[in-house]
């Protein structure tokens, strides 16, 4: 069981990482969602699991650890809210640029150009 | 008993204020009153906490009466208390500045509530004694920061904000994974409990966890290979927002690094890695600053450089090094916020923050020049100012610990910082104003008065920038007691017995 969950988390993290490295916003957002799922699975498997939740009383080992479950619930709510915000941002970006691609930093381009070697200019000087 | 309850107030008051401010959305004056009052209350509570903690040791609050490993615990020790005080002072000043500035705050109903949530998140990050609550506090703060950084929704902001959100989310996913590993290996996320149980793990496991947490907080702090999002995201936000981000948010990351590395991994922290990262952070940050042609981007790159200085203090793992780092933290929050507020003033009067479009401000707006000069000299580490004491403390600690190489790197970075600030100073304040060079024989009075009077900044923008300059000078004047306090705080970090006792079993 544990191996299967570990494998699932690994696959989710792999696919998520691949998607995050794309330049298309919607893919990045899906990638982040998958990475979040991978983290949640890791978190969920960190305590005692595969047993009934706390009902009535009994030995501690008979119940699933409720703490990781509480963590994961909190994390899911947070991821949900942030994903909604990201989608809104992506939508705004599409409205403004009519494109779904991550844009370049203009300032970075300007500074990179300053250091570029200009062949024509050099020949003119010589 | 009464002091216990104080610990919750820096988080509870801004949250309550944020809810009220949403309800009062129709009336901007009511929203402003609520925001300023809550932040002022936090500042007062912070000062009371600081006095109490410095006299009688750390104060803990078990929220809801649940004991430590199960319940939510809040602890104020010296480091947390002093940071709450400085953070609330900065937040208050920036709130006033935002009210004075035409723009973000006036146009958006959401500014004040979101700003208060940010304040609560920052306080919660400092005060929490639980790794998972640290995650929640970070998310609270980041959620508010996502909204603030894209407030206005201009194309430039959406682009930079997107990068910022994606990188932060990636860090959060890593943080969650790290939490999963920590809980799986130790069965607890309570910091006090963890510090005992982590010692029982195998060295490899401890180092792995230490490195994973370092990467997570390194992304938030802007440590060497992980800083690329920072100079891209910060300059595009409205200027009060940039000021509070620059002053506070990266420092929360540094605080988390200091807290987790000293408390959880006292013997296993990757010190050599930290030293190398600190040195590389200092140099790349300042070299990046020199290459830029925009005031805000220069200042943003400098943040990275100074984060390196603070991490250097931690990496020495001595009382003197940590004391230097804490002093640096306090000084840098104030000086950097001040500089970004002045950058906002420059934009207000000059219409731009690009170096090539500005000039001659020292003649038209001498007050702004003075307000820039004080925190700039302080940041550069000039002798009478607070930055000098902070840098001296770190240099001293570095030599004492026998780490000469990192000291020379930090001194080189300091010299380059001066150069990057001189670049701003000469382009913005001393160079001839635009147009002045083209038409040489200018009548001395006529154009000056017209432009100068029309663009005079509102007093509510000047006052907070002045307050930051005064606070920066106050840190320099009170350097001796503040440094002794930093030493006591550093001793607390390396000898945690009082912290563990107050949290309980």
Report on this model:
- The complex is a heterodimer of chains A (126) and B (505).
- Helices cover 69% and strands 0% of the residues of chain A.
- Chain A is an all-alpha fold and 126 residues long.
- Chain A has a single domain, classed as Orthogonal Bundle (Helix Hairpins), CATH 1.10.287.
- Chain A is elongated.
- With 505 residues, chain B is mainly α.
- Chain B has a domain at 270-434 and 446-498.
- Helices cover 77% and strands 2% of the residues of chain B.
- Chain B has 23 helices and 2 strands.
- Chain B has a two-stranded antiparallel ribbon with strand order 1-2.
- In chain B, β1 and β2 form a beta hairpin.
Which features characterize this protein?
heterodimer, A: 126 residues, mainly alpha, Helix Hairpins, 5 helices, B: 505 residues, 23 helices, 2 strands, 77% helix
Task: Tell me the series of helices and strands of chain B, N- to C-terminal.
Answer: HHHEEHHHHHHHHHHHHHHHHHHHH
Q: What is the molecular shape of chain B?
A: globular
Q: How many discrete structural domains of chain A?
A: 1
Average pLDDT reading of chain A: 83
Oligomeric state as shown? heterodimer
User: How large, in whole angstroms, is the Cα Rg of chain A?
Assistant: 24 Å
Biggest β-sheet strands, sense, barrel of chain A: none
**Beta-strand percentage of chain A?**
under 5%
Strand content of chain B: under 5%
Q: Quickly give the structural class of chain B.
A: mainly alpha
Q: Structural class from helices and strands of chain A? A: mainly alpha
Largest interface: A-B, 41 and 40 residues
Which residues of chain A form runs of ≥5 with pLDDT under 50?
Answer: none
Tally of DSSP β-strands of chain B? 2
How far apart the termini of chain B lie comes to 19 Å
Distance from first to last alpha carbon of chain A: 73 Å
Report on the biggest sheet of chain B: 2 strands, antiparallel
């Amino acid at each position: 069981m544990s191996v299967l969950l570990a494998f699932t988390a690994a696959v989710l993290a792999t696919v998520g990482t691949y998607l995050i490295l794309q330049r298309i916003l919607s893919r990045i957002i899906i990638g982040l969602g998958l990475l979040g799922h991978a983290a949640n699975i890791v978190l969920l498997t960190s305590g005692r699991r595969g047993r009934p939740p706390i009902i009535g009383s009994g030995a501690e080992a008979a119940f699933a650890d409720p703490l990781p479950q509480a963590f994961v619930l909190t994390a899911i709510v947070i991821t949900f809210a942030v994903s909604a915000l990201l989608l809104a941002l992506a939508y705004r970006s599409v409205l403004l640029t009519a494109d779904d691609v991550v844009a370049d930093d203009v300032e970075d381009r300007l500074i990179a150009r300053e250091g570029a070697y200009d062949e024509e200019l050099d020949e003119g000087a010589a | 008993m009464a002091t216990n309850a104080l610990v919750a107030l820096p988080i509870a008051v801004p949250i309550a204020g944020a809810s009220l401010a949403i309800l009062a959305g129709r009336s901007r004056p009511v929203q402003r009153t609520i925001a300023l009052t809550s932040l002022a209350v936090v500042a007062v509570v912070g000062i009371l906490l600081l006095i109490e903690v410095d006299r009688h040791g750390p104060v803990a609050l078990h929220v809801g009466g649940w004991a430590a490993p199960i319940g939510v615990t809040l602890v104020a020790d010296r480091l947390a208390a002093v940071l709450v005080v400085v953070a609330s002072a900065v937040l208050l000043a920036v709130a006033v500045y935002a009210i004075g500035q035409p723009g973000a705050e006036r146009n958006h109903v959401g500014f004040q509530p979101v700003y208060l949530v940010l304040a609560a998140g920052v306080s919660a990050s400092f005060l929490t004694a639980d790794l998972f609550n640290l995650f929640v506090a970070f998310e609270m703060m980041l959620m508010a920061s996502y909204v603030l950084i894209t407030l206005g929704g201009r194309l430039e902001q959406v682009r930079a904000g997107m990068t910022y959100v994606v990188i932060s989310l990636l860090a959060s996913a890593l943080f969650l994974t790290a939490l999963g590993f920590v809980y799986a290996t130790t069965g607890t996320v309570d910091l006090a409990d963890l510090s005992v149980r982590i010692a029982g793990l195998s060295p490899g496991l401890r180092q792995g966890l230490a490195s994973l947490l370092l990467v997570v907080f390194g992304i938030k702090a802007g440590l060497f290979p992980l800083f690329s999002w920072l100079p891209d995201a910060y300059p595009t936000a409205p200027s009060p927002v940039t000021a509070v981000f620059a002053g506070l948010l990266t420092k929360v990351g540094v605080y988390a690094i200091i807290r987790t590395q000293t408390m959880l991994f006292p013997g296993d922290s990757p010190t050599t890695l930290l030293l190398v990262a600190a040195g590389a952070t200092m140099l790349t940050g300042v070299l990046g600053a020199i290459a830029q042609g925009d005031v805000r981007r220069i200042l943003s790159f400098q943040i990275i450089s100074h984060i390196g200085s603070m991490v250097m203090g931690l990496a020495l793992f001595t009382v003197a090094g940590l004391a230097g780092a804490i002093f640096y933290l306090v000084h840098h929050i104030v000086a950097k916020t001040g500089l970004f507020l002045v950058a906002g003033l420059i934009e207000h009067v000059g219409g731009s923050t690009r170096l090539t479009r500005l000039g001659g401000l020292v003649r038209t707006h001498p007050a702004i020049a003075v307000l820039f000069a004080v925190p700039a000299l302080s940041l550069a580490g000039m002798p009478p100012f607070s930055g000098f004491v902070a840098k001296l403390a770190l240099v001293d600690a570095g030599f004492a610990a026998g780490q000469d190489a990192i000291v020379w790197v930090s001194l080189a970075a300091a010299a380059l910082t001066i150069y990057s600030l001189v670049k701003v100073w000469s382009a913005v304040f001393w160079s001839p104003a635009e147009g002045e060079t083209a038409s040489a024989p200018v009548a001395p009075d006529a154009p000056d008065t017209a432009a100068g009077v029309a663009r005079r900044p509102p007093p509510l923008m000047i006052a907070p920038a002045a307050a930051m300059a005064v606070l920066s000078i106050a840190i320099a004047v009170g350097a001796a007691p503040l440094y002794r306090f930093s030493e006591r705080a550093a001793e607390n970090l390396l000898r945690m017995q009082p912290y563990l006792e107050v949290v309980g079993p």
